[in-house]
Amino acid sequence: MSFKDFYNNEVKPKAMKLMKLTNPMAVPKLVKIVVNVGAGEAVNNKDVLEKIQEQLALITGQKPIITKAKKSISAFKIRKGLPIGVKVTLRGKRMNDFLEKLVKIVIPRIRDFRGISEKSIDKNGNLNLGFREQTIFPEIEFDKIDKIRGLEVTIVTNAKNHNMGKILFELMGIPFKKN
User: Within a domain: residue 45?
Assistant: First the structure.
């Protein structure tokens, strides 16, 4: 069963009950997933961004774009317009496949994992996750990486508030810390 079928057949009916909604269209759903890697060392070494692009393409199955600095920061030797990061925006089938991989394969591989903090959900019901290393993704071969880098994953929903987002993520199988 695909993740979309899982959402429609299991998550949606349970969410309607828990959120006390009468209209199935009012149930929050995923809009997009953004995977982002910031690379400050790109200031000195231009090849870094290409390596990160290759790794992100393997992880997400989509070609990433290079992000540029929005403003100059002299302390970090960053000028406006300098390429300093790589990101991918996933929607549709790729988004569902990535979320399924995240829940079923990647999160269980995290060492000493005790659950995701509820504070990772913002007031609009979006979930922000940070990973310390890209090696927890099964596509990345440890021998072929030049340096261990962190990456951020933002799961954007159309939930109206924090609680709706939390209910949605719990039903989708994202493990939160027990109080």
Answer: yes
